[in-house]
């Protein structure tokens, strides 16, 4: 419950901190310093679009959003199964390759979007 309240408080602070979307007041350090969206830019809005069932908007905002959403749900399920089977570390240790692959895909996509000028603002 405390984590949920902290998350809601954090969202409120972020909304109040930068309601205009001005890069000079952004919470993201990359956007604040270099005025350039980060590799995850658009991901929150894409997840919100996925939650509404609007796949085309989600993919337009961040093409990896559906893949990462599926991986988050699958990871949550695997974590739950690991806890139930009382072997959490054995199953969770296999995620290193997946996490590195996701990071590489995010950076590659970001570099491609920077090069083509298709980053969302």
Give a concise summary:
By secondary structure, the chain is an all-alpha fold. The chain is 69% helix and 0% strand.
Strand content: under 5%
Q: How does the major sheet shape up?
A: none
What is the averaged pLDDT score? 77
Order of helices and strands: HHHHHHH
* Helix/sheet category: mainly alpha
Shape: globular
**Total DSSP E strands:** 0
* Unreliable sequence segments: none
Task: Determine the N-to-C terminus distance.
Answer: 33 Å
Oligomer: single chain
Helix content: 55-70%
Radius of gyration: 17 Å
Q: Helix count, per DSSP?
A: 7
Q: Which helices and strands appear, and what pairs or packs with what?
A:
Blueprint lengths: L1 H16 L11 H6 L8 H9 L3 H7 L3 H20 L3 H5 L3 H21 L5
Helix pairs in contact: 3-4
């Amino acid at each position: 419950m405390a984590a949920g309240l902290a998350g809601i408080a954090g969202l409120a602070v972020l909304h109040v901190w930068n309601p205009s979307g001005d890069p000079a007041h952004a919470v993201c350090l990359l956007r604040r310093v270099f005025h350039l969206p980060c590799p995850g830019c658009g991901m929150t809005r894409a997840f919100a679009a996925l939650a509404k069932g609007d796949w085309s908007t989600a993919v337009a905002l961040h093409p990896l959003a559906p893949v990462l959403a599926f991986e988050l749900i699958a990871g949550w399920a695997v974590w739950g199964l690991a806890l139930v089977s009382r072997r959490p570390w054995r199953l969770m240790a296999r995620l290193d390759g997946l996490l590195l692959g996701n990071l590489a895909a995010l950076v590659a996509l970001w570099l491609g979007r920077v090069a083509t000028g298709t980053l969302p603002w």
